[in-house]
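Throughout this review, each integer encodes one residue's backbone shape. One record appears below.

===
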Amino acid sequence: MSLLHVTLFGKFRVRCGGKPLQGLAAQKVQELLAYLFLNRDRPHPREALASILWDHCSTEQSKMYLRRVLWQGQQALQGRPEPGAPALLIVEREWVQLNAEAPLWLDVAVFEAAYEQVRGLPGQHLEREAACALREAVELYTTDLLVNWYQDWCLFERERLQNLYLAMLDKLIDDCETRHEYERGFDYGQRILRIDRAREHTHRRLMRLRYLAGNRTGALRQYQCCAAALEEELGVRPAQSTTALYEQICADEREAVAAGRLGAAPNAPGYTLPDRLDHIINLQHMITSVQTHIQREIEAIEHALHLKP
């Protein structure tokens, strides 16, 4: 039985038996399926789905559009080579849900499962199997979720998954430093800076990695990159902890640099005030995004229930 192979990082793609599945070219069909893939753990009221996907239409119009798009999606999915395979969608009178028993490989699901395996676990304590799973997972993140899609629900999911990606890269940097795989750790840090070039915490970690790998010049140049990014992006100078690390490297104090622990837990020794502020700001941003998404879901369901006869 061939799996449906679905990728959401980058462009929306659905393949079956190694070939693109036909009949999914319509944008709204893709939006519906992508939303269900990303929210695959629960059933969705039809009215809520219609309101989310056609938020500028009247209730009757949005429900009519949903019926049409569901039909198009089901027709395409029924064209798979295995007619006896479990249906991907469970469509009922009031609810729509992704079938957990359907043969499906989803890049986002694999990515999230790898993160859940190490949630709350410091990168320095990763078992080799977990570290390998994490390394494979970050390779799935070829680019942001569903590029060039700007729906509110998609923007929320894109930011959520990007935050997971950054957290996974942080853990992998810790793991690489523990295993003395400094160049690989530097590569993970560079991926973070491609998303946020002014992330000072990451610049400090790359300074350490370069220096510990024997590249003192590269470590000093990393400080210059950090200072330039902070000035251009935020108009500020490097924090005292960054400057102190720079001075240790200038003085070639290898033992002092090696003894420092960047990426420790927020309450652990060596976790500096700038690190704590970065951590708090990131948490506040994530909490605000989650609250906004939940509020939209509540409003959509309340609106649908209010309009029921």
Notes: Residues 261-279 have pLDDT under 50 and may be disordered. Residues 91 and 97 are 7 Å apart (CA to CA). DSSP finds twelve helices and seven strands in the chain. The radius of gyration is 23 Å.
